[in-house]
Write a structure and sequence with these properties.
Elements: E1 7-16, E2 21-23, H1 24-28, H2 35-42, E3 46-48, H3 57-72, E4 81-85, H4 96-103, E5 110-114, H5 120-133, E6 140-147, E7 165-175, E8 180-188, E9 196-197, H6 209-213, E10 220-221, H7 223-244, E11 254-257, H8 262-271, H9 283-286, H10 293-300, E12 310-317, E13 321-328
Parallel strand pairs: 4-5, 4-6, 11-12
Antiparallel strand pairs: 1-7, 2-3, 6-7, 8-13, 9-10, 12-13
Helix pairs in contact: 3-4, 7-8
The structure holds acetyl coenzyme *A.
């Protein structure tokens, strides 16, 4: 007898963005820029910023998980594993995932952090799906969360206009109906590190008064190179995954791209010949929340998706890291009714 393939279905979603907004008008007071320039060059109007000094990435992630558990009525102790994609853990050591398990009451879950920058959520989703497909775990939470305001220099107009804070979480459960994560295609090119990084604060250049004075503990990037590489990386990854799954752009219902810059998103949509109505965009409200952009889109637009929809997720980020995930949408569940 043929055993049906187990896939990992998204059965619940949660999200969190901080209350405080940083608008383009606020940024005009911090650096030499304008609402017009930022809107035309990036599409961003405002971002959310976690200002409470007692809160950090793990708190945003835990808020997103609590929302997921509340909406799906899933008891916290039923979660087996948690994977937190982040580039901004609360501390370099220990894993922020441990704090999320603690703060969200996931007493029976083991967890770990995964850092693949803006591609982190997709890489983590693939890892989580593999745990479900292995049949060793039944309920895996995958989170993308970043407090970018902690590593952004608010006197550098090249970067401070882009980023915001937030977290999104999904629950993966087994499906035998061919629903969920169907395929992943990922790439890494270490030459990209030279174009986008936080140079200091790690083992190469530990934080010191010199690195702080030189602003090397903040994000630095060659924006134009990243811009071009992101368009090519995301559109090529989508074309490749569509081809190997025999999908035409008519078969794809939605594309959810990493939200880095509206011009990047539009260029990817154009290269794939997708009508813009199929491309989900919320960058105007949140900016680039790094690992959180894709789960925050899933959270924001969940009511637009119907069972069986073919969704392409695609991301590009520091590393360089990039890729695409083919997801077949299922049904969000209520547990223990
Ligand atoms: N306000 C006003 N002027 C600005 C600002 C600003 N905030 N920032 C830069 N400028 C100036 C530059 O100094 C430059 O002036 P110059 O010609 O006198 O030197 C001019 O505007 C044009 O600069 P460019 O860098 O060519 O502007 P560009 O159109 O490339 O836009 C941007 C810059 C928005 C950073 C763009 O390159 C970009 O989005 N790159 C991708 C970066 C990114 O998304 N990084 C996030 C992490 S990776 C990821 O998520 C994919």
């Amino acid at each position: 007898m043929n055993k049906r393939r187990i896939t990992a279905e998204i059965t619940a979603i949660g999200g969190y963005v901080p209350e405080d907004r940083l608008t383009n008008e606020d940024l005009e007071k911090l650096v030499e820029t304008s609402d017009k320039w930022i809107t035309e060059r990036t599409g961003i109007k405002e971002r959310r910023i976690l200002r409470d000094p007692l809160l950090a990435t793990s708190d945003m992630a835990a808020f997103a998980v609590k929302k997921l558990l509340e909406d799906s009525r899933l008891p916290a102790e039923e979660v087996d594993c948690l994977i937190l994609a982040t580039s901004t853990p609360d501390q370099l050591l220990a894993p922020a995932a441990s704090l999320v398990c603690e703060k969200a009451g996931l007493n029976n879950a083991w967890g770990f952090d995964l850092n693949a920058a803006c591609s982190g959520f997709l890489y983590a989703l693939s890892m989580g799906a593999s745990l479900i497909e292995s049949e060793r775990y039944k309920k895996v939470i995958v989170i993308g969360a970043d407090q970018m305001s902690a590593i952004v220099n608010y006197s550098d107009r090249n970067t401070c206009i882009l980023f915001g804070d937030g977290a999104g979480a999904v629950l993966l459960e087994p499906s035998t109906a061919g629903i969920g994560v169907i395929d992943n295609l990922f790439k890494t090119d270490g030459k990209g590190v030279a174009c986008l990084s936080v140079p200091a604060g790690g083992s190469l250049e530990p934080a010191s008064t010199e690195t702080l004075a030189a602003g090397r503990n903040y994000v630095q990037q060659d924006g134009r190179t990243v811009f071009k590489a992101a368009i090519k990386g995301m559109s090529d990854a989508c074309l490749e995954i569509m081809e190997r799954n025999n999908l035409t752009n008519q078969d794809v219902d939605w594309i959810i791209p990493h939200q880095a810059n509206l011009r990047i998103i539009n260029a990817v949509g154009n290269r794939l010949n997708f009508p813009l109505e199929k491309v989900k965009v919320n960058i105007q409200r949140y900016g680039n929340t790094t690992a959180a952009t894709i789960p925050l889109c899933l959270w924001d637009f969940q009511d637009d998706f119907t069972a069986g929809d073919n969704i392409l997720l695609t991301a590009f980020g520091a590393g360089f890291t990039w890729g695409s995930t083919y997801l077949k949408w299922g049904t969000l569940r209520h547990h223990n009714l």
